[in-house]
Each structure stands twice: as structure tokens, then as C-alpha cells.
Design brief:
There is one protein chain. This protein is an alpha+beta fold and 110 residues long. The protein is 24% helix and 18% strand. The strands form 2 sheets. A 3-stranded mixed sheet has the order 1-2-5, with helices on one face. Helix 2 packs across helix 3. The longest helix is centred in the last third of the chain and has 10 residues. The two termini are 14 Å apart. About 5% of the residues have low confidence.
């Protein structure tokens, strides 16, 4: 299972620390009659834990940068890099990959 998690909130760098590796609850595994599934995670965080995400009434800067930077055929890493270049110097986004489970950052986005 692949999860792209985008967060655009202050102190968002480790929003995923409890998410990976993730095991589906027993009732869901039993319902699906399958074993636990490893989740491959890529996290596009608006900033590190020590910093702030900025925005206005029209939305967060990081969210707007991600939306405007996406082009068909990009990998997730290319998409992140293109969006990060659109950010002002006062907010540095963070790309988090799960080393235990693996990521899909170099696969074609969406």
C-alpha cells in the first residue's frame, strides 16, 4: 500500500512518526482475510518540527506550491523539489521517507 501524506501545519516534520510501519487493525485484516500490509510512505511536510508553516485566507503556502508545481510524468521526488523551489526562504519543506518499509519517491506521481 502506498501513502502520500502532505501536511501544511506548523511543526509538521514528524507528523508521521506513529504511522509507519503501519499494521491494519485485526478486525480489518480478518475481514479482508489477508495478512498485515506494509505501508510505503512519502511525507511532504510543510516544515520541520522546529518551524512554522505560513499561509493566508487563500490557503497554506506549501499546499499552494505543491498544487502549482505538479506536472504529469513527474516522480514524487521531482514534484517535491519543484514545489520546494517555489517556497519563500522563511519556510523550508521537508521530504520524509520511511527507511524501514521503503518509499515510492522515485516512482511516477499520481
Amino acid at each position: 500500500l502506498r501513502v502520500l501524506f502532505g501536511s501544511d501545519s506548523c511543526h509538521s516534520g514528524t507528523n508521521t512518526r506513529a504511522a509507519a510501519p503501519y499494521r491494519f487493525p485485526r478486525r480489518i485484516r480478518r475481514a479482508c482475510r489477508s495478512v498485515a500490509v506494509a505501508v510505503r510512505l512519502v511525507h511532504f511536510a510543510g516544515c520541520s518540527d522546529a518551524n512554522y508553516s505560513y499561509g493566508a485566507a487563500y490557503g497554506g503556502q506549501w499546499t499552494r506550491a505543491r498544487l502549482s508545481a505538479y506536472r504529469p510524468g513527474m516522480t514524487y521526488r521531482e514534484w517535491f523539489d519543484a514545489a520546494a523551489k517555489r517556497m519563500p526562504k522563511n519556510q523550508v519543506p521537508l521530504l520524509t521517507l520511511d527507511p524501514e518499509v521503503g518509499s515510492f519517491a522515485d516512482e511516477t506521481a499520481l
